[in-house]
Amino acid sequence: NQVPDEAMLIPFGLLAESGSAISTSFYQQPHEFSEASIQRGFEFFVEKVASRYRDNKVIQPADLSLDNEGYGEEVFRKLVKKGYLNNVGEITDLFNFHDLSSKVILGDDEVENLRVTGLFRSKILGPMNLDAYQSKDGLSQTKHLIQLEDHHGNKWHMHDLLNLINKGETVQEKMDHARQVYDVLFDMTESMMGLSLSSGPTSGEPQIIKFDDYVEMNVHQKASWQTFVSSTEPGASDLDGSWESKEGQPLRLRFDSEVHAKSFYQSIREMLGFLEPILATYTSEHGSKSGHFDQLDYPLRLLVDNAGDLGPKGIINQASDEYQVFVDTTYHMAFFHTATWQQSSRLISHETTKAIATKSFELARVNSMSRLSHRRRKDDYKEKKAEHDLKEYERIRDEYKRFLKNKKKHQALLKKAQSSKKAHHKKVLEEANKRAIKDRKAMEKKRQVAREEAKRQENKRATRRKR
């Protein structure tokens, strides 16, 4: 009912039949433009964003020093000698990152061993280290080796997740890896904002839980980690105990301040913002886990806001009280293979064909009557056209005359203005000359007076000398 002309229904009828082929051709068939765009997009993402959070598994002597550069070099040599580092400072496989009971053994000083072990783990986990956002109350209060679980059950450390895009050899592999990264980052964003496809919109701010000395924020709905369980044996120290695994638990992290929590949230949103245009424009088709198109895999989720909409107080922007963010999805290409689409496409084709045929029949009858009426109106049209052409000629002629008249007036005014300008300029020059002459005369008079005064003084001195 919203289409003003039935002829405009033809593309809809054609798309119902060929929508799957068109989408497949654009999104799935590799071509030079899409591959170049995707490749450059990932390079830009790695250069501008991911590089800031990339892990650095190289340890320098300065990292090991305790306000003593010589001590750092000594510890570095010990680590190389024991095989924990190679000659350039790269961490070797001798250090088992995934085994929390594994420690770097430098000597008998247990505190120093733990310090160096912590440095090793921090380097491997990289700047985006979720283990760092923890309670500092004790070993048993902290989570270690935090991993986030994606929709397919894969578990990711943040440094492994962010390095995933670089591991793709082809553009398609990088697209698949980017989708995995994007989905985990989006899960984190949903948890931090308290948002989902089934929930209503939110204000677009992270939901931060405030305490007296710190704040907390939900970061992911499904995570795993290891936590230390202290021994309950009599006489056991705080370091006695064992490691216990937690699986499939909601992850809440602790931050020193609300500013730090928002900074973490913004870093995740920033990475989403770089990946979304690439994935939303060039989304490859993913089958469902069962391999059947009738059971669709989840589509690409997007954060959508109402910025730019017209609200009660005008155009809505991010600072408006009416500003809202919600989750939406892009269409999924596998939808074209479902029974729902087949039924819908048949209905669209039938309805568009029916509407076009009905309108064509009506137009045929109307055209037959119109031809008869046209013959009667033909002579009237010629007469009115001749009259119109004459009036149009006279109108153009009159407008041209007015144009010439206005042009003469404009030229006269311009000439008058130029004359006035010249006269004013001449008057200014004359007044300036008069002032200059007057100033010269005054100066000459002062000089004459000065000379006369000097002459009188000279005469007085000559008279005194004679006496």
Which terms summarize this structure?
467 residues; alpha+beta; flat; single chain; 5-stranded antiparallel sheet; two-stranded antiparallel ribbon
Give a written overview of the molecule.
The protein is an alpha+beta fold. Helices cover 54% and strands 12% of the residues. It has 9 helices and 9 strands. Strands 1, 2, 3, 4 and 5 form a 5-stranded antiparallel β-sheet that branches. Helix 2 packs antiparallel against helix 8 and helix 7 runs antiparallel to helix 8. The longest helix has 128 residues. The N and C termini lie far apart (129 Å).
Could you give a short account of the major beta sheet?
Answer: 5 strands, antiparallel
Output mean pLDDT.
80
Helix content: 40-55%
Count of DSSP H/I helices: 9
Shape call = flat
- Compute the number of strand runs: 9
SSE inventory with pairings:
Layout (H helix, E strand, L loop, with lengths): L8 H19 L4 H17 L12 H4 L4 H14 L27 H16 L18 E6 L5 E2 L1 H5 L8 H23 L14 E3 L4 E16 L10 E15 L2 H24 L19 E5 L4 E2 L2 E2 L9 E5 L9 H128 L1
Antiparallel strand pairs: 1-2, 1-4, 3-4, 4-5, 6-9, 7-8
Helix pairs in contact: 1-9, 2-8, 7-8
